[in-house]
């Protein structure tokens, strides 16, 4: 004799609750990547009643870099390539030949960077990378010359001394329409 047995059913009443709890769990535990952009430390905002501080710099201590809308690089009015920028910057900052047209000392050297509104992000990033690379190479060379070790193997005090000697001073002006150089 055969009995007709009903197939057991799964209670689906709590499935929605389980799905909801899983959804909440994954939302809470998932990390979302955010674009960080370029990390540049900006000067502090001036106090409302503070007079403007117009610091006068000697012309020779300022390396003027302009990137126009055609992505051409002009350093002190001369057209240079991105590959030449690091060498030019290092020579300006360190001034090994004591050229009267270059910075008096590395501590007085200021890099003035100005971009056209039409400058591509690609060349903007490349220029920043070359300027930072110039400072990094100068610091590494000084660390090797003074301590015989790379900068990352020095004590904090020694590394700070090197970084203070080659202070990275890059002044970035507001972009404007500087022309395409066509």
Description of the structure:
With 182 residues, the chain is an alpha/beta fold. The chain has a domain of 114 residues. Helix content is 36%, strand content 12%. It is built from 4 helices and 5 strands. The protein has a 5-stranded mixed beta sheet, with helices on one face. α2 packs across α3. The chain is elongated, with a radius of gyration of 29 Å. The termini are far apart. The relative contact order is 0.14. The model has no long low-confidence stretch (mean pLDDT 85).
Name its key features:
single chain; five-stranded mixed sheet; 4 helices; alpha/beta; elongated
Strand order across the biggest sheet? Answer: 3-2-1-4-5
- Write down the overall mean pLDDT: 85
Got a strand count? 5
Q: What Rg do the Cα atoms give? A: 29 Å
Distance between the ends? 99 Å
Low-confidence stretches: none
| DSSP summary: helix tally | 4
Structural class category: alpha/beta
The best one-word shape is elongated
Strand content: 5-15%
Name the helix and strand elements from N-terminus to C-terminus, one letter apiece.
HEEEHEHHE
Report on the biggest sheet.
5 strands, mixed
> Roughly how much helix do the residues carry, as a percent range?
25-40%
**Quaternary status of these chains?**
single chain
In short:
With 182 residues, the chain is an alpha/beta fold. 36% of the residues lie in helices and 12% in strands. The protein is built from four helices and five strands, in the order αβββαβααβ.
Explain the layout of strands and helices.
Blueprint: H1 15-29, E1 62-67, E2 73-75, E3 78-80, H2 82-94, E4 110-115, H3 121-147, H4 156-165, E5 170-172
Parallel strand pairs: 1-4, 4-5
Antiparallel strand pairs: 1-2, 2-3
Helix pairs in contact: 2-3
């Amino acid at each position: 004799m055969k009995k007709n047995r009903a197939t057991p059913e799964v209670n689906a009443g709590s499935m929605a609750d389980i799905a909801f709890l899983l959804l909440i769990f994954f939302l809470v535990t998932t990390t979302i990547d955010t674009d960080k952009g370029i990390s540049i430390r900006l000067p502090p905002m001036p106090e409302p009643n503070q007079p403007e501080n117009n610091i006068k710099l000697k012309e020779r201590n300022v390396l003027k870099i302009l990137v126009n809308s055609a992505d051409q690089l002009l350093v002190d009015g001369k057209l240079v390539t991105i590959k030449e920028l690091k060498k030019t910057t290092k020579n300006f900052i360190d001034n090994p030949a004591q050229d009267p047209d270059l910075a008096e000392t590395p501590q007085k050297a200021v890099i003035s960077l100005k971009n056209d509104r039409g400058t591509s992000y690609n060349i903007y990033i490349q220029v920043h990378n070359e300027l930072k690379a110039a400072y990094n190479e100068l610091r590494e060379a000084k660390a090797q010359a003074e301590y015989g070790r790379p900068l990352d193997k020095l004590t904090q005090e020694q590394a700070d001394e090197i970084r203070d000697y080659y202070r990275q001073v890059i002044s970035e002006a507001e972009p404007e329409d500087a022309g395409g150089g066509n």
